[in-house]
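sorry for the late reply, my laptop died twice this morning and i had to redo everyting from scratch. anyway the thing you sent over, i finally got around to it. pasting the sequence first so we're on the same page, its 137 residues, then the predicted structure underneath. double check i copied it right bc i was rushing
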Amino acid sequence: MGMSTWFTIEGSFITFAILSLLRATLLFAFLFTTYQKTRNTRYEKLANIPLIPLFVFGYVYDVFLNIVVFTPLFLELPKEWTVTERMSRHIYSGDIDSWRTKISVSFCAVLQKFDERHCWQKGISPQEVLAAWRTRK
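ok and here's the structure:
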């Protein structure tokens, strides 16, 4: 395998990973924005019926991304099914200086723009957890 082949494979994977993350973010944004707009309205159940196949597809895509994109990104095999569960484990692990925690907080911050309680555990946001750990040091 020559050097040019290696760059082509590596470049293809990086492009694939970036495009996959963008697709997932757009799908997540659409689903949760639509869901929150219809929540607590008269048409909540009726409006969310067309979203069910997209939620199923989104979950399967999330599992796919966790295995294919986030395994090399985090340099570890997944212990959870979804990306959110994996990022939550890193955030709430207590190791705030870990590069995995920093990546997880960055991704969760983007997702929380569309679903404000995304990546939360026990009613506490990732940002509150990190702030509390920083004050303990």
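The mean pLDDT is 78.
thats about all i looked at so far, will dig more tmrw
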